[in-house]
Write a structure and sequence with these properties.
It comes from Coffea canephora (Robusta coffee). Helices cover 4% and strands 40% of the residues. The protein is mainly beta. The longest helix is centred in the last third of the chain and has 6 residues, at 153-158. Mean pLDDT is 75; it is low at 1-15 and 123-152.
């Protein structure tokens, strides 16, 4: 099972709530749809027929499903993706633990938080998935870099055209003491060097995550989760 949330934070105007946008690549057959259903009423309270139906679009030959909802800044919930037919009957669902949505620190009314997810196929397939293979993890690592959980708010305000990106992965087959790093092309992801990578912090229930302030010029990002 791969649980990936990337919180890309931008600001919009004249809004009294935060907009959460779901995005997931998934190929469906004719007559099939993707929806998000979760623990809160706005996502159906686990009633799939009342969940958020996503809309498809093509991006570089890949079918992407997306949709958004307005929520308060302190919103949190559990959720999962489902494949349904035209009548919203469930045809397929994700395997593994429920996803957990926790908005990044510093998010305020008028912000947009984008969640970039991958379909969860179950813990048995986790060690063989491309996303998992590309994450750097070991039982012990002699790196001196330690990055605290949460975003440095002063850094966010001081850097012009900056956004908050949240990296999050669920690794049920990995023990709590394991170190997991994200490497990528931007400077704050180490420019593909392990010594400068972003260390994820254990958040409980097999989830590692970290927030990072990045410049808009760094996008599009190149990093292991693809």
């Amino acid at each position: 099972m791969v649980n990936l949330n990337l919180g890309l934070l931008t600001q919009t105007k004249n809004l009294k709530s935060v907009t959460v946008s779901f995005r997931i690549p998934y190929y469906t057959q004719w007559g099939q749809h993707l929806l998000v259903c979760g623990s809160e009423p706005i996502l159906g309270a686990w009633n799939v027929k009342k969940g958020l139906l996503l809309s498809p679009y093509n991006q570089d030959g890949e079918l992407i499903w997306s949709g958004g909802i307005p929520v308060p800044a302190d919103f949190r919930c559990e959720y999962n993706y489902y494949v349904v037919d035209d009548e919203r009957n469930v045809l397929r669902w994700e395997v593994g633990n429920k996803r957990k949505l926790l908005l990044p620190e510093g998010v305020q009314s008028g912000h947009l938080v984008e969640l970039h997810d991958l379909w969860q196929t179950g813990s048995d397939a986790l060690p063989f998935s491309s996303a998992f293979k590309n994450v750097i993890f070991r039982r012990s690592w002699s790196l001196d870099i330690e990055r605290p959980l949460g975003v440095n708010q002063r850094e966010l305000h001081e850097e012009a055209d900056s956004v908050i990106v949240q990296f999050r992965i669920c690794c049920p087959n990995i023990e709590e003491g394991t170190s997991i790093y994200v490497l990528g092309s931007p400077l704050k992801l180490g420019q593909w060097k392990a010594q400068g990578g972003l260390k994820l912090n254990y958040a409980g229930e097999s989830v590692w995550q970290a927030d990072c302030v990045m410049q808009k010029d760094d996008f599009p990002l190149k990093y292991p989760f693809k």
